[in-house]
Amino acid sequence: MKHHIVRAVRAGIYQLLGAALLTPVAVLLGLPILTEWTPERVLVLWAACLPASVLLALTPLMRRLEAAALSELLDVEVPKQADRLYLVVLTSLHLYVGGTLGAGMLALTPGLVALPEQARAGLGEPAEVLLIAVTVLSVMVAAGLGQRWAARRLLRTEPSRVIDELGRRQSLALELHDSVGHALSVVLVQAMAAQAALQRTRPALAVQSLEHLTATARHAQQDLDVLLSVLDDGGTTETPTLEALHTLTRGLDVHMNAVEHLDKIPAATSRTAFALVREALTNALRHGRGPVTLDVAVGTGLVLTVDNAVAGSPGGQGRGLTGMRMRARLAGGTCTWEEADGTWRVQARLPL
Asked: What mean pLDDT, rounded, does the chain reach?
């Protein structure tokens, strides 16, 4: 109950704020129009306030005030990069409706001021004034709640929010492709190694491969759970950093030359680097042969180099390579690849 009362009060204050913001302009317009008080002139002033509201809404200061009012008074989440047109529409509506209802309250003020004296003379006109005042206040609250409803639905289709949502889905799709794709590649390699070990009657190696297979499958299941929970909650996820490189190379024939103190690398860059290494190793497992060499160097920037022998002619640029290039660009870096003398090399450079 208290929550509903607070929400109603805030909706009313929102309308009063709109009236207060439009009042100076309405007064300036009223000076030449209301030289004579007639219903027609009042109607002309009311109509003139509509384009005035739109012109006011075009100013950056008014749009910033509107964004703050929507957030603080109506609990409407306004995107940081909200489209200008959407804010102009909401601001214009706020000013014009608030100004109209504020004028109604202003017109009732004389009656409300005289209400105590009239009340002593008996009910009748005071009750009518009070009833009208309550009605206007109720309309202001209803209008505020209505604008809250309209703002939420309008901003739901706001371009920057749609772009953010598409970016989030694309990021999740890329993360799902990289993490699960890497896990499946490791599972395949370890299963083949276990099969080969059993055929050579070397159970110890088979057990070791199966342990790696089990650990990889368990990590993949955890990654999948995290990604699915993000999809359910509509939030974001954070990928591992370079400090977790050992989870990628465990049980694989990877020769790693990594610098110390990987924890000193900025977290955002480290996460991007981890994702790039993961995809490069996945490609090496799928399309390469023999051991893989991984170098992590830190100078003016972070340089990742992954080398492996090719197992055949390189195929076309797939989703993984495209995703690697996109990740590197988003981090302000580059990601290149080439095949020379039977060696496939992927190199990423990221700024620190």
From this structure: 79
